[in-house]
Design goal:
The protein is mainly α. The chain has helices spanning 4-20, 25-39, 41-56, 58-67, 72-86, 95-112, 114-119, 124-139, 150-162, 168-174, 179-185, 218-241, 246-269, 274-302, 331-336, 343-358, and strands at residues 198-199, 202-203, 319-320, 326-327. Helix 3 crosses helix 14.
């Protein structure tokens, strides 16, 4: 479910944070989120440019849709040609969402396998060896239960070992209080360090559930709320910066994201470790704070979207009758006759000329 190369990169960043700044998993995730947000700012700015470009060509898109409403294939071809001619990326505005998903998938491996990625340099055999050694020490009375929950995690770990698998989240929690002892007795485990999963009374190494007594269930809810507020803020900022027919297209896109992101945050929040949901919450908050800055920089660098020019209709010239009074013909008559005269007026004018000739 995770992306190996991205996970390896994030593992290096997370390991540096946790070995130099803090061993608290929650604080490490917050720092990681801030760092990635700063590093990805240029890409976010490029994405904002893509959104502005799409809004700029929205009037032309509407014209193509009207022109080829009965020919979908021709419409699709013309749209692709328009994007190519204007130098606009069709997926430019989707970049932020795609980046968040890539980070989530990359970070998933680091959070789900902390011993493998953060402690033992991706050595699978060493992970199994540490789990077996810890289980043996627990059976021999050498295990140190520093947190009071060690017994619970060891019982869980022992069942996993008997089943032929090791859940690294359980192993990482069971290691609390025993890292220094294991490193002293087994130099090959030098890379071990303690990870504290507790954050604001929540266990970030556990999985949220729909149970009302599971406090972790509040994290997906907070994630959905922050996603909604962030999307709402983005919608308002986009609406204020776009005018003319481009506004309709921007409004439709923003409306879709307004509900899509919160629902996705809520659903995914109940299927991933709580640490990932914390990342999503912090990312939403930082995105909301970053959005006004992005808009200011994007407007200054790429310019705002200009409203579509409205062509004014020519006002028909008044017709001077023989009585000397001015009569303005209806607009539809003016549109049908280039000189603005109706057939009756021309006929009347012709009769008067004949009478003058007779005299």
């Amino acid at each position: 479910m995770y992306i190996p190369l991205v996970t390896d990169l994030f593992a290096v960043i997370m390991k540096f944070i946790m070995t130099t700044l803090t061993s608290n998993f929650g604080l490490a995730i917050i720092i990681f989120t801030v760092v990635t947000k700063v590093l990805l700012f240029p890409l976010q700015l490029k994405s904002k440019k893509g959104m502005i470009d799409q809004q700029r060509i929205a009037p032309k898109m509407a014209a193509l849709e009207k022109k080829y409403k009965n020919n979908k294939q021709k419409y699709s071809e013309e749209v692709q040609k328009l994007y190519k001619d204007e130098g606009v990326s069709m997926l430019g505005g989707c970049l932020p969402t795609l980046l968040v998903l890539v980070i989530i998938l990359g970070l998933y491996g680091v959070i789900y396998k902390p011993v493998h990625y953060l402690m033992l340099d991706r050595d699978k055999a060493a992970v199994t060896a540490v789990a077996s050694q810890l289980s043996q020490d627990y059976a021999n009375g050498l295990y140190i239960d520093e947190t009071g929950d060690g017994g619970k995690w060891m019982e869980k770990l022992n069942k996993q070992i008997k089943a032929g698998r090791v859940d690294e989240l359980s192993l990482a929690q069971a290691l609390a209080g025993n890292v220094d002892r294991l490193k002293a007795e087994h130099p090959e485990y030098e890379g071990l360090f303690e990870i504290h999963f507790g954050f604001l009374g929540l266990d970030l190494g556990d999985m949220p559930s729909y149970s009302p007594i599971n406090l972790l269930a509040i994290l997906p809810v907070i994630s959905a709320i922050t996603a909604y507020l962030m999307s709402l803020l983005t919608q308002k900022l986009n609406a204020a910066s776009v005018q003319g027919s481009a506004a309709a297209s921007a409004a439709n896109t923003s409306k879709m994201m307004l509900y899509f992101m919160p629902i996705m945050s809520l659903v995914i929040g109940f299927t991933l470790p709580a640490g990932l949901t914390l990342y999503w919450i912090v990312n939403n908050i930082l995105s909301g704070a970053q959005e006004p800055l992005l808009m200011v920089v994007a407007k200054k660098r790429y310019g705002a979207v200009e409203p579509e020019p409205v062509k004014a209709k020519k006002k028909p010239k008044p017709v001077v009758e023989t009585t000397g009074e001015e009569v303005t013909p209806p607009e539809d008559s003016a549109g049908d006759e280039p000189n603005g005269l109706s057939e009756e007026t021309e006929a009347a004018g012709g009769d008067e000329e004949d009478e003058d000739d007779d005299e």
